[in-house]
User: Which sequence fits this backbone?
């Protein structure tokens, strides 16, 4: 018996039977082409929906639809939240953190001294600046972070040219 060399179009795909098979033989251009519909029992094992156990949803807060609305999960709409500090709160913070030695290290958590009553912001600033010099040449105020260094032009060597020719271009780096 000769070995089968050609692919059988009906081996793993559904094929028509009866009247529809005869109609396809008459009307189709190439009746030996497969229908393209796979036989589920041969193609997928285990077949879909054939497993006896039911899926159990994991019990978590995220799986509860009542406690997990979409707007909490949507990170595209995580807009920055507005933070408001009044002048009275700011004066209390300035007075409590005005001492230079109250910088917290990671190992300790200092408790700021309690202020009896909130001062005006201008009074708090004058009280801090009179008690100690806040900024000096060695201790500068914080500056805004920039993603790149500011360009400072420095004159570079001239491009090669004739020594006595007119060359108005200056090169900077």
Assistant:
């Amino acid at each position: 018996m000769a070995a089968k060399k050609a692919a059988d179009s009906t081996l793993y795909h559904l094929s028509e039977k009866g009247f529809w098979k005869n109609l396809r033989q008459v009307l189709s251009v190439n009746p030996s082409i497969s229908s393209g519909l796979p036989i589920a029992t041969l193609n997928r094992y285990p077949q879909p929906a054939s497993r006896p156990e039911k899926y159990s949803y994991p019990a978590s807060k995220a799986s509860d639809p009542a406690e997990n609305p979409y707007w909490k999960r949507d990170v595209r709409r995580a807009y920055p939240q507005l933070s408001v500090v009044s002048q009275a709160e700011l004066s209390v913070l300035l007075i409590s953190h005005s001492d230079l030695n109250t910088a917290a290290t990671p190992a300790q958590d200092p408790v700021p001294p309690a202020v009896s009553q909130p001062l005006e912001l201008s009074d708090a600033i004058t009280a801090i600046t009179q008690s100690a010099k806040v900024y000096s040449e060695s201790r500068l105020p914080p500056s805004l972070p920039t993603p790149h260094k500011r360009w400072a032009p420095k004159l570079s060597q001239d491009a090669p040219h004739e020594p006595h020719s007119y060359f108005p271009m200056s090169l900077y780096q």
User: Anything to note?
Assistant: Residues 129 and 136 are 12 Å apart (CA to CA). The chain is about 20% helix and 0% strand. The mean pLDDT is 80. Residues 121-131 form the longest helix (11 residues).
